[in-house]
Amino acid sequence: MNPREEKVSIITEESTANDEDAEVGRREKSSKVQRQQRKKQPPRADSEEMVTGKAQPGQEEPEMHLLSMPARRGPRSLPPIPSMSRTGFAEFSMRERLREKLQAARSKAESALLQEIPTPRPRRLRSPSEKELETEFGPEPCKESQATSHRNDSQSYSRVKFHDAVQKIKSKPQAPPGFPSAEEAYNFFTFSFDPEPEEPTVKARAKNRDGTHQEEEGEEESPAGGMNKMDEEELLGSQDAKDFLLGLDPAPDEFVVVRPAEYEGTHTWLEKEKELLFFPSRRAVPTWKKLPENVQPRFLEDEGLYTGARPEVARAQQNVVENRLLRQEPERKWFGDDGRILALPSPIKPFSSRPRPLAQEPSAQAGLETHYKKAVKYVHRTQHVVGSADPPGSFQLDIDISGLIFTHHPCFSREHVLAAKLAQLYDQYLARHQRSKAKFLTDKLQALRNAVQTGLYPEKPHQSLDATQKTIKEYKSEIRETRKLRDAEQEKDRTLLKTIVKVWKEMKSLREFQRFTNTPLKLVLRKEKVDQKADEEAYEAEIQAEISELMEEHTEEYEQRLGEYRASYQQWKAWKKAQQKAKKKKKKQAEEHPEGEAEEELYPGEEPVKPIPPELLDHAVLEQQARERAAHSRRRPGEPVLLPELSLTGSVTPDDQCPRAEVLRREDVKRRSVYLKVLFNSKEVSRTVSRQLGADFCVHFGQIFNLQIFNWPESLTLQVYETVGHSSTTLLAEVFLPIPETTTVTRRAPVEEVEFSSSQHVTLDHEGVGSGVPFSFEADGSNQLILMTSGRVSHSVAWATGDNGTPLIPPPSQQSLGFRSALKRADAISSIGTSGLTDMKKLAKWAAESKLDPNDPNNAPLMQLISIATSGESYVPDFFRLEQLQQEFNFVTSEELNRSKRFRLLCLRSQEVPEFRNYKQIPAYDREILEKVFQDYEKRLRDKSVIETKDHIDTHRAIVAKYLQQVRESVVNRFLIAKHHFLLSDLVVEEEVPNMSSEGSGILGLSLFKLAEQKRPLRPRRKGRKKVTAQNLSDGDIKLLVNICRAYDIPVRKPPASKSQQPARSSRTFSDRHAASPGAHSPPHSPDTPLSQVSVRPFVEVSFQRTICHTTTAEGPNPSWNEELEFPFRAPNGDYSTASLQSVKDDVFINIFDEVLHDILEDDRERGSGIHTRIERHWLGCVKIPFSTIYSQARIDGTFKINTPPVLLGYSKERNVLLERGLDSVRSLSEGSYLTLFITIEPQLVPGESVREKTSDLLKKFDSQEDEKLLQATEKFQAECALKFPTRQCLTTVTDISGKTVFVTRYLKPLNPPEELLNVYPNNPQATAELVARYVSLIPFLPDTVSFAGICDLWSTSDQFLDLLAGDEEEHAVLLCDYFLFLGKKAWLVMGNAIPEGPTAYVLTWEQNHYLIWNPCSGHFYAQFDTFCPLKSVSCLIGPDNIWFNIQQYDSPLRINFDVTKPKLWKSFFSRSLPYPGLSSVQPEELIYQRTDKAAAAELQDRIEKMLKEKIMDWRPRHLTRWNRHCTSTLRHFLPLLERSQGEDVEDEHRAELQKQLGDYRFSGFPLHMPYSEVKPLIEAVYSTGVHNTDVPNVEFALAVYIHPYPKNVLSVWIYVASLIRNR
Amino acid sequence: MAAANPSVFLLMVNGQVESAQFPEYDDLYCKYCFVYGQDWAPTAGLEEGISQITSKSQDMRRALVWNFPIDVTFKSTNPYGWPQIVLSVYGPDVFGNDVVRGYGAVHVPFSPGRHKRTIPMFVPESTSTLQKFTSWFMGRRPEYTDPKVVAQGEGREVTRVRSQGFVTLLFNVVTKDMRKLGYDTGPADTQGIAGPSLPQGIPR
C-alpha cells in the first residue's frame, strides 16, 4: 500500500495547491474536465467539442451547461430537451445554482486533479481498477456490464463524479472544505475513468422505480426534464441519501445482484483444458509415423557408414520430443532416414574450457610439511658465472624389464614344443576372436544386401535413375568382395580351431605315450548349444541369398558376354549379309529373345526376372558350389559352437615318476640361468640379476633401470645371456628396443613384448630337443622339425618425470628424424611419431595424405578427433584467461600501440631501464619524441652480443668489459628488485627498544637522565652538520668544497746550469749561455747556490666535472695555500637519489703545477722599459680522488702522497738530495711529495649505506650456501662487534659475484703467482714480494661501488679477478694476500679505513721482526710505524682460517698490536667454543697464467701511440704540432729501462742520457705509468698533464709508449710525453 | 596567446589547509608537500609549507583552524603521476615533545573548480607494546622516514597504522590546455573548444 499512499498524498497536495484558483476557474475547469473526459470517447468528442467550444466564449454559464448537458447525454437523451426549454428560467437558474454548488463541491478535487492529469494517464490506470472491481464485486457483474458499458460510456464519467461527490460528502466533516481527503483523491483517481460495474444494475433499478423519466435521465445529477423544483430538491435529497448509502455501504442489495458463485466442474474444466492443452505422450512413436509413407527405415550404420555417437538422451524424453514434433510440424523434417530424431554427434565439447581443478585440494598441512632435500655440492664455476644458464639438465630414461619367456629353448621337451605351439595357436585364436572379423563381415554383407534391396524398391522415385543404378552396381560388387572375404575369414577361423584341436590331440597322445606330463597346459572345448531349427533356417537363407546373388552375377556375366557376342555378331552379320539372309533372320529371331531379358535386366526398377532356361541350368550347379563352400568353411547347421579354452590347471608329473632322460632334462633346466644386459648407445650401462630358468621357461626380473642421460639416445639394446651351471656365459640374442616417444612417460608406458631368436645350435643328451637341430615327433624320425631358440622379453621403456611432473626428456631437436621417412604413410604413429598424436594439425594432415576412410568405424574416434581439431575449436587451453574481453577494450591494435614512441618511452621508464629511469616530462605528442632518444638504448641492446673493439684496443679487454657490463646489469636488476622490497625500517623511523645490557647510550636511565638535561647547556658541544636526504635536491644545491692546505716536498727545478757540468755540454756553450743569460729571475748559473734560488712556484689546479679552479701561486718546495675552492655538483640526469649519487664516476683531479716565467723579450735593449714574459706551467704531479669516496666518507681530511712521475725532467727533490740521502730505509719508504687536503660536500648528504646494508641483508637471507649455523654465528659475531665498536667494520661474510653470501675466509688460500715473477729474484724474497705486489697493482682498479651503483661489495675469486682484469681493493688485497701466503709469508687481510679510499682492504705481512702493511692497489708497502701510511685504522684481520676483530682501544696501526694470539686484543671468530670447521676455499686450486702475446702488446703499443699523437694534435687546434722523431726514439729507448727498474733510481742516469742526446733543447716532460684497462684513462692522464698546453711557436713534441706485458694479459703502460723547445 | 598546439598542460592549484579535527590533541601544526610523477614540474608557487601552530577553538566544534594557503602551479605532459598533496600534522605530547599526529595524502582534484576534501589522518603504530610505551615515554613516536611514503603504495604492507583525525582542505583548480592535449577531466567545457581530441601517442 505504500506506493499508493504516496500517490494519494501527492494528489492531495496538488489539489490543495489548486484550491485557491479553483474558485476562479471552477466553471471553466469543470467544463474543461468534462471535455477532457469526453475526448476519450472518440465518436462524440468532436461534436461536443464543437458545441462547447462555440458556447464558451460568448454565452452565459447556464447556457453553456444547457448546451453541454444534452450533448453529454448523447442521442438517447434527446427527448428531455423540449422539457428543459419549458421550465422557467428562474427555476432553471435556481436549479442550476444548486447543482452548481453541488458540483462545485464535488468537483473541487477532481477538477484540480484532472487538469493535472493528462489524458493518456487514466488509460494506464484502467487495468488495476478493473482488477479492483473484480475483487470487490466478483467477475460476474463486470461481464454483465460489458455489454452495456460501451453504450453508457458517456454517462460513466459523471457517475464517477457522483460517486466522488458522495465520498466528498461523507468525508466533509473530516477534512476542511476544499481539501479532499486522501481516500477521496485516491478513489477519484482510480475510479474516474472506468465504467462503474454496478452502474447498469443501478440504472435498472432506477428505471423500475422512477419510470420513464428516470430512464431518460440516466444520471442522478442531470435534471429530469419534467420535474419541478421540489422534485429536484427531493431528488437531490434522496440522491444525497443514496449517495451516502452508496458511499457507506458498498453492497446494498439495491445495487448489486447477489448470485451464487459460478462453478465449473472439474470435468468440464478438464474438457475445456483438453481443447487447449496438449500433453505429449511418453509412449514411443511408431516408426512409420516418423517417416514418409512407404519408406523403410534405413540404418546408415548397418551399411557400414560412419555415424557419430549420438548424445545420450533418456528414451522417455526422446519420445516426448518426437510426439511433440509430430504434432507441431507434420512435415517430419526433424526425422532422419532411420526414423530417429536428427542429432549431431554429441555436442558436448570433449575438452573442458577451463583448466582442470587440482586433483586433490592439498591440505594445509601438506603445504606446511617440510621436505628433506639432499644437499647440493657447491659447484665451482669456472668463468662465466652469472650469465650462464643452468647446466644442461640430466634426463632420465626408465627401462623396466619385467621378464623373459622362451618360446623355444634347447631344453624344451617334445611336450614343451607342442605346448608352445598350442599356446601360440591359442593366442592367435584369442586375437582372432577378439577381432571377430568374420562376424563383422557377415554384418556388413547383411547391410549391403539390405541396401540393395532398398535400392531396388525405391520409395523415392525422384532420385535419378542412373545414380541409383550406379550405387546398386557398386553395392553388388561390394557384396561380392565382402562375401569372398567373409568366406575366407570363416574358413581361417575354422581351420585354426581345427589345428588347435589337432595339436591338443597330439599333445594328449604324447603325454600318454611318454607317461608323464611336463606342462600344466590343458585345453577344454566348450560346446554351445544352438537352436537347431533357427540355425538351419538361417543357414539355408544364407545359402539362398548367396545363390541368388551368384545367379545375378552369372546373369550379368552372361549379359556381358552376350553383348560381346552381339557386337562380334554384328560384324559378322555385315560380312555375311549379302549371302545368308534367311539364315541371319532366323538367327536374329533367336537372339531377340534374350535381348528382351537384357532389357529387363538393365532396368532394375522392375521385378527381377526369373532365370531363363540356360541360367536355370546353372542354378543347380551354383547351389552345389555354394553349399560345398559353406560346408567347408562354415559350421554345419545345428552343430554346436566350439569354444576352446586353454588353462594351466593340469598337473606336472613329479621328478621321481619320470624316466631318467626327463629327469636329466629337468636338472639341466635348473642349472641354467639367464640375465639381461642393458646397452645404451651400444655401451653396457647395467645388467639384471641372474635368474634361474623356471620349469616353464619363464624368467621374471621385475627390475627398473633409471638411465641418467644427457643426449637423445641413439640405440637401446638388451642382450640375453644364458649361464649353464658355473661354466661359461653365452650370448643368446640381442634385442633392440625402440626409443620411446616423448609422450611416453613412466607410469603410463605400456608393457611391451619384443621377440628374439638365436641362431645357436645345441644338441643335448637328454630329453631336451635341442636347438637348431632336427628332431621329430614321429617314431620313425620322419617329419623332421628344426627349431631355434627364441623367446620374448617383456619390458617397458619410458621417460621419467621430474618432481614437478615434467618429463625429463632431452630436447627433441636432438632427435634424428631422418630414418623415419621410409615408414611414412604406413602407420600414423610411426610416420608422425607419438608426439604427433598430440598435435592435431599434424595428425589431420597425415589423415588427409593417407586417405583414411572416414566412414570406417575403426577410424571413428580418430576422425572425430581430427574433425574437431582441424575446425580449430578444440584448441585446448592450457591457461585460464581472466579478461576474455580484453581485446574488445583495446582501443588500438597492439601493433599500433607498439609503434607509438610515446608509449614505448613510458613503458621503458616504468621498467626502470637505466637510460630512461629518470626521464622527465615525456612529451605529450609522438612527434615531439626524437628518434635519438632511443638510439643509445637500441645501440646498447644491439651491442650486447657484439663485442666492440673500438674503445678497447685489445679484444680480451673488450670481452671482459662486455662481461663486466653483463654482471653489472644483472646485479643492478637484482638491486632494483630489492629496492622495491621494503622493510619496516625503511618506512618507519622507530626508536630502538633501549637495551639494558649495553653500556652505551642505550640505558633507559641514561636517557631519562638526558631528559633532565638542560636544553641550552652552558658549554655547548659541537654538533654534526645536519644531513640532507638527497631527494629534494636539484642542480646547484650541492657544492663540493676543496680546501688545499699545504704541500710538502714539492720537487724543485733543477738548475739548468748543471748541464754545464756534463762533458757533452762544451760544444753548445755558446747557445746555452745565450739562452740562459737574459733571465733575470731565472736561477743563477752557478751550481753552488741552490738554496738562494726560487726553486719552485707551485700552484694547485683542481678540476671536477669540467669545472677548473686553481689556487694562487705559492713559492718554495713546501708551499702553504690555505685556499678553499668551491665546485658545483651536478648529479647524472639530475637524479639525486642515493643510488644515483653512489654511481657518480667523476673524479676530483688535483694537479700540482709549477709556474715558470720565461722571458721572451727579443731585444735586450728593451729590458729596461718592458717585461715580456711567457708563463709556462709544468706538471709536477696529481692526486685523484673519486667522488664516490667523498660521498661515502662525507669528508676527506688528510695528507696524500702526490702521484709524481718517476722521472721529472728538470726537477729534483732537493731535500732528498741534500739532506736525506743515506737515511734509514723506513724514511726512504715515505719518499715523495705530499699534499694536505680537506674535501667535503656542502650540505652534507646522507650516505647510502642503508641501501647497501639492506641488500646485503636480503642476500644473506635468501642466497647462501653456507651452513645455517655458521651464518647465525656470523650474525652474532657481527652484532657483538658492532655493539662494542660501532665504527669498526666487522667483515665475516661477503657477497660473491653471483650474489651469494660466502664466508670471507674462503677467499684466502695460497695461490701461485706467475712463474716468471718468481724467477726474477730467486734469492731475494723481499724483492720478489715487491714484484708480486707490483704485478697485483697493475691490475686495473675498478671500484665496486661505481660499477654496481652502490649496491654491494662483490668479491670475486682470484681467477675471476684475473679474468676480469678489474676489481677493487678487496680483490687486489685477496690476490696479494694469497700470493704472500704462497710465498710462505704470514699474511692477513686488513680491513680498515685508509685515505683516500675510505673503508678498504690492505694486506699485512709479518717479516722477521716487523709488520709490513701493503697497499694492494699501488703496490707500495709501509712499515707499521710509518706516519705516512695511508691506512688510518684497522678494524679486523682476516686470515685463511679465522677472523680477528680489533677490540683494542685504538685502531690506528701505529698504536695497535698486531699479535692476534692475544684474545684481549683481538676477538677471534673461531674459538674453542666454535672451532674452525675447515671450510673449503672458493678459490681455484691453482691459477693458470697464459703468457701474454708479445706481438699483440707491441701492436697495442703502436696503436696507443698513434692515438695519443692524434689526440694531442686535436687538442692543439690552433697550432702546428711538430713531432721530434729523434727525441721520440730516444724516449722509447728509455721506457723499458724504467719498467725494469720499476721507475726508481734511474733519474740521474736518465737525465744524463737525455742531456747527451738532446742537449740543445729545453726539455720538459715525464713518463707516466699506469696499468692498462682502457684507452680513455690514458688519454685523460696525458691531457691532465697539460703538456700540450704550450703555445711557444717552435715547440716540438715527443711521445713514446711502451707496454710491458705481464702474464695473464696484465699490461704495464708507460707513456713518455715531452715538449721540446730548441734553445737558440 | 597560447600556442595552437601546446606541448604541456598546466595545473594551477590554490586553496588552503582549512582546518582539522583531532579530538584528542591540541596545539598542532601541519606540513604539506606535493608528490608528483616524473612528467610533472612545478612552475610557480611553493611546493611545500609549514603552518603556524593552532589551538582548538573554544566552541563546540573544537576545530583546529589553520587556513594555511596553498598556491602552486604545475606543468606536465602526462596525467600519470598527478600531483598529490601530502599532509603531516605534528603537535606536542604530554611531555612537550613534538610528535607526529597524522599523515594523509590526497590527489589534487582532476576537474577544474572548487573542491573540498577531508582527509583521514593516520600515524604508524609501534611494533610492540613495549615499544609503544617507550616511544610514548621518550616522546619518539614512530614516524615515516619520509612523509611522501603515504603518497605511494609501495612498501606500505610492512607498516601498521592507526587513525587519528581529519584534515579539511580546499582546492581551487584551474587547468589549461588539458583538452587540447586530449584529456577531458571536467564537466563539459562551456567554451566548447573543439580541440583535437585525438588519442595520445598514436601515429596518424
From TrEMBL, chain B:
Q: Which molecular-function annotation in GO is an example for this chain?
A: hedgehog receptor activity
Q: Which GO terms describe its biological process?
A: camera-type eye development; cilium assembly; embryonic digit morphogenesis; in utero embryonic development; neuroepithelial cell differentiation; regulation of protein localization; smoothened signaling pathway; vasculature development
Question: According to its UniProt record, what is one Pfam family this protein matches?
Answer: B9-C2
The keyword Transcription regulation is assigned to this record? no
Q: Which InterPro entries match?
A: C2_B9-type_dom
Q: Which domain of life does the protein's organism represent?
A: Eukaryota
Which subcellular locations apply to this protein? Cytoplasm, Cytoskeleton, Cilium basal body
For this UniProt record, the keywords arranged alphabetically read as follows:
Cell projection, Cilium biogenesis/degradation, Cytoplasm, Cytoskeleton
The answer to keyword Cytoplasm applying to this record is yes
Positions of the UniProt region annotated as Disordered: 184-204
Mention any one GO cellular component term assigned to this protein in its UniProt record: MKS complex
Q: What does the subunit comment say? A: Part of the tectonic-like complex (also named B9 complex).
Q: Hey, which family's this protein in?
A: Belongs to the B9D family.
The task this protein performs is described as: Component of the tectonic-like complex, a complex localized at the transition zone of primary cilia and acting as a barrier that prevents diffusion of transmembrane proteins between the cilia and plasma membranes. Required for ciliogenesis and sonic hedgehog/SHH signaling.
| Protein name stated in the entry | B9 domain-containing protein 1
